[in-house]
User: Which sequence fits this backbone?
């Protein structure tokens, strides 16, 4: 029996990347995971009909391909194949219309008619500079950016709202494009920062595409676990850690949990000021998610949607803005904005021959137990008549269920905290190093730290570096966030 130098609680992507970073620095690392399989928001399972494999949480991975944390992990060597559709995402509108975003900025601009010039004006320079801008935002947000002027310009635009950005467009298509990408934030489209999401996600679509993982997102986690195991790290599943004092002795504890769980796990030992800050931490809306096994592909009225893995379903800017405002005011929209993915467009391995899987979620108030299946299906049916006839099986997960499957999704908030202006920078509290807690040797590595939600692993890198610095161990061979 060896004693671990570091214990990581939670085997989500951030927990595993933190474990890997610590193991690479020579530490003996043990990971404890509550669920029966590792992966957290990056798992795949047969949720509906045998032979149909669904991503339980994350499905689409532009952040992973853009992330410095994954740049030095040889996923391909572990058999991970990223499949990138020619159309990153599409947004259908009534009357069989759709706006589609693929690799080429000029092509999208040309398809937008009267809004083409505005689109090119915003996205041509952004896509050209995205490699210089991204590192400043995919990290701790505490280091001086390598390209400060470009990062500052992007940050300033980010303070604007999606509504401000939509004013630059005059067609229904151009404005819908802004709404569909801004709504990923779960913010009202009138909130500061909601304008940064269209810029970020559309730039990522042009620069990297929006890929899925062949066979399902779990393959990424299998690769992380395999790499960790090679370095002597261990992952124990089925182990819910309720209190920090039940952990075996180690020099470092890294927690892939959110502030509310940290407070519970610490059992009153958190210093008062830090505890107060953690209690003030705000969670965002939840999600209600549905997975379907289908007998064939969804026949969207707009041809362009049939080539896209991701489809933003919700109609016009005004409709999506109204729905997201409802959710943020504690109401369930009748016509919700739905994020839909159809991975079989590029990955036939997810279903038996001819079959397709479909994945969708809509936003709901935090803590909701309302089943939104009917309303989500009605929205899809609106743009793809006959959709319901394809359904062989379905599985629904309300916001309350989300938290039952993963305690880090408090109230069904899949981003581990609201994306407000304050919390995007000062996540989880106002402090210089966001990964260090006020407890000696205890660090947070979840999406409740910068840069926030998504499968990018950078919260894990940040926490591991803070821990290594405190242990006097520099020189971990992964990027400093
Ligand atoms: C429905 C849905 C769709 C999403 N879609 C995308 C997408 O397409 N692309 C994308 O980039 N991101 C997506 N995300 C977000 C992404 O999955 C998360 O942001 C990401 O997984 C966060 O990683 P993490 O390691 O911080 O936390 P998590 O992945 O949540 O992992 C935390 C882990 O810690 C474990 N844990 C928590 N408490 C304890 C405890 N006390 N003891 C032991 N173990 C514990 C949990 O069981 C879990 O395994 C989606 C999430 C959901 C739910």
Assistant:
């Amino acid at each position: 029996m060896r004693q671990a130098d570091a214990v990581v609680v939670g085997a989500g992507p951030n927990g595993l990347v933190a474990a890997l970073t610590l193991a690479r620095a020579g530490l003996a690392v043990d990971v404890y995971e509550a669920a029966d399989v590792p992966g957290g928001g990056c798992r795949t399972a047969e949720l509906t009909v045998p032979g149909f494999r669904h991503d339980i949480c994350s499905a689409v991975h532009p952040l992973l391909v853009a992330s410095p944390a994954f740049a030095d992990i040889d996923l391909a060597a572990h058999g991970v194949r990223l499949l990138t559709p020619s159309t990153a995402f599409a947004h259908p509108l009534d009357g069989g219309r759709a706006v589609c975003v693929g690799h080429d900025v000029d092509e999208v601009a040309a398809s937008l008619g009267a809004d083409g010039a505005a689109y090119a004006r915003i996205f041509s320079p952004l896509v050209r500079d995205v490699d210089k801008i991204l590192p400043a935002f995919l990290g701790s947000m505490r280091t001086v950016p390598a390209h400060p002027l470009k990062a500052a310009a992007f940050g300033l635009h980010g303070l604007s709202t999606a509504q401000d950005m939509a004013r630059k467009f005059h067609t229904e298509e151009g404005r819908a494009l802004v709404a569909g990408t801004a709504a990923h934030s779960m913010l009202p489209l009138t909130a500061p920062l909601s304008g940064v999401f269209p810029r970020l996600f559309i730039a990522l679509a042009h620069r990297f595409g929006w890929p899925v993982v062949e066979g399902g997102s779990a393959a990424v986690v299998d690769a992380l676990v395999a790499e960790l195991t090679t370095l002597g790290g261990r992952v124990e599943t089925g182990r819910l850690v309720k209190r920090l004092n039940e952990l075996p002795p180690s020099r470092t504890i890294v927690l892939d949990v959110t502030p509310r769980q940290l407070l519970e796990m610490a059992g009153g030992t958190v210093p008062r000021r830090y505890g107060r800050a953690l209690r003030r931490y705000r969670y965002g809306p939840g999600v209600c998610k549905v997975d379907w096994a289908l007998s064939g592909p969804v026949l969207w009225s707009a041809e362009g949607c049939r080539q896209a893995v991701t489809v933003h379903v919700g109609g016009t800017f005004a409709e999506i803005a109204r729905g997201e405002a409802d959710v943020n005011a504690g109401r369930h929209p009748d016509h919700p904005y739905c994020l839909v993915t159809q991975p079989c467009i590029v990955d036939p391995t997810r279903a038996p021959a001819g079959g397709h899987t479909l994945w969708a979620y809509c936003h709901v108030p935090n803590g909701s137990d309302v089943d939104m299946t009917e309303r989500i299906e009605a929205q899809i049916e609106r743009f793809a008549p006959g959709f319901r006839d394809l359904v062989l099986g379905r599985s629904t997960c309300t916001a309350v269920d989300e938290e039952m499957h993963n305690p880090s999704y408090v109230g069904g908030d899949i981003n581990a905290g609201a994306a407000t202006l304050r919390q995007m920078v000062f996540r989880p509290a106002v402090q210089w190093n966001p990964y260090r807690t006020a407890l000696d040797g205890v660090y947070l590595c979840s999406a409740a730290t910068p840069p926030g939600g998504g499968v990018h692993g950078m919260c894990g890198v940040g926490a591991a570096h803070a821990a290594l610095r405190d242990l006097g161990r520099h020189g971990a061979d992964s990027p400093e966030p």
The first strand starts at residue 6 and ends at 9. The chain has a mean pLDDT of 95. The longest helix spans residues 116-137.
